[in-house]
Amino acid sequence: MTISMARNDNKDEILRLRLRMTAFLLSHCTLIMHILIYQFQFGGDMCGIIGFIKENCLLDVYKGLELLEYRGYDSVGIAFNYCNQTKIIKQKGRVKDIKPKLNGYTSDIAIGHTRWATHGKPTEKNAHPHKCRYFTIVHNGIIENADSLKEGLIKKGYKFLSETDSEVIAVLLQDCFTPDNILLGIQTALSKLVGSYAVAILSEYTPKTIYLAKKDNPLIIGKGKDFYCFASDSPAIVGYTQNLYRMKDNEIALLSNDTIELFDNNLKKKKTVFHKTYLTVDNINKGSYPTYMLKEIFEIPRAVKSTINYLKKLRDIQNTCNFKDYNSIIFLGCGTAYHAGLFAKSLLDGVAYIHTQCITSDEFLYSSINLNKKTLIIAISQSGETADTIGAIKKAKKSDAKVIAITNVPYSTITEFSDYCLLTLAGVEIAVGATKSYATQLIVLKYLCGKICGSNKLINELLPQEIQQVLTFNRYIKDFVYKNDFENLFFIGKGVDYQTALEGALKVKEISYVYSDASPAGEIKHGPLAMVGAKTLVVCIITKEIYLKGCLNAVNEVKSRGASVLVISPFEKISANQITIPKSLENDRSVLSVIPLQLLSYYLSIKKGLDPDKPRNLAKSVTVG
Ligand code: F6R
């Protein structure tokens, strides 16, 4: 059994792969993966950085910061060239709070930062950009030797205004400045840093240039028709350009109006080769939807269709991963991605020659699971930047295990660090709650597990239409939520439906802050029933006939304790409150049955007046371990 995927192995293979992929891309306009080995550093704030060299670009930086808010949103700042000086506007608060302060300014060169403080309070002083005389920076990462560097610089007479480690970069740049060779000064300053950084630099000495550098933190450059931009993640800029270059560690890039210059760590000039990414953003705005989350749920049919089309083309690629080489498969992921892994594990249960496990990435880091060359890791991550999953991949790579990444973001850290990669084509997902990405993860995992089992019936072309039918229950779910008052929710199901129940319970707590839990249907009487009362909603998912009898027993048990019941099933007339999903292929029913749960969590949130796109205490991409 084989499957076509992108593979990273050694330099020669990478080169061969690139050539093959480029040829394939040219002829089929499809997949290309750029491959690097990447060392990930834990710690530091979760931040997003972005910038543009483009006519009148302040609003572009602002919009990019909005898209990067999934990396954090407790303080924000923008620096731009204004009358040949660097003007900084920054503050504590959400990105939208800064917009009025940009009124009256225009600039053709600007950098921005959104911060989620994990080290040092979210205050205006700690917000980026940081400036020291003629140098201004935004930084994502952590400078581990900041304290000792500061000590030395203070002795030289420099003053520090913030509690951050990042400010030391601006001060060092000023200290190392060499009037006749600014690049050398920058390189000298960067060489003194221990830790990780993606940094963008403005200098009043050269007001028409942005300098970029990175080590152990992602930094993507985008090339537009007559502009350049950059960001810590490609989703923030693919609305402007799909021509991307992922910077390598220790490179320095100089962006000016219509040129890019790239240097290695010896300041030798390098060629920049831009690649076209698969990632798309349909519409950066919410369109006619009140929130991104609702928009993204309604985008599921299209996302699934794109993913199906991608998988169909993928069969033509000649790179192979021979599943017969493995006797153990471990699915890894966090949160929703972990639930997708559980779904995949359930598909492989019973395949005699493979031992299958699914474990959260963080637990995997602490586990003593035996890893060897017969182990295949399948790591799932929407963002491709989740620190726990990157850490888990890194651990797996220390053994002889091979890693397949499943991600929504090409050029993300996870794609660099894995041996193979499969993409979900959900398009950019902005709302914190994963919805369309989960649906597409299930499609890719079903395909992959089918390949592992040697099955041919992997693609259901009718699925997008079937999803459309489920979406017609939107109004029903809204009314159901508004007519009732629930103190707590239990999601129950058997087998693969229990995985869907777990996802439903996660979504409800995440978005609506209503207490919710999941239980295998047969387990409810062994404990959770004590929590069931008149203000409880029990959502029961039944996608297979063999589960009917057991689930109905559980439904009767909770009903007799006064709970309300909502059933999600393709089998009709089970309950007065029911969402009847199409009788799709059995393994596709998990995609159909999760959508009502996403809508349920959504309306519970809206009813409470919350912002489902940005739930409290959570960030879309958890880049700290
Ligand atoms: C839930 C949710 C989170 C993410 C988790 C993993 O709606 O969004 O639980 O699923 O943080 O994120 P990725 O998939 O980006 O690795």
Structure overview:
The chain is of the alpha/beta class and 625 residues long. It has four domains: 1-42; 44-282, Aminohydrolase, N-terminal nucleophile (Ntn) domain (Glutamine Phosphoribosylpyrophosphate, subunit 1, domain 1, 4-Layer Sandwich); 289-459, Rossmann fold, CATH 3.40.50.10490; 468-625, Glucose-6-phosphate isomerase like protein, domain 1 (Rossmann fold, 3-Layer(aba) Sandwich), CATH 3.40.50. Helices cover 33% and strands 23% of the residues. It is built from 18 helices and 26 strands. The strands form four sheets. An eight-stranded antiparallel β-sheet has the order 4-3-5-2-11-10-12-16, covered by helices on one side. A seven-stranded antiparallel β-sheet has the order 6-7-8-9-13-14-15. β8 (195-203) and β9 (209-215) form a beta hairpin. α8 (300-314) packs antiparallel against α14. The longest helix has 19 residues, at 589-607. Fructose -6-phosphate binds at residues 334-337, 381-383, 386, 389, 432-434, 506, 510, 621-622.
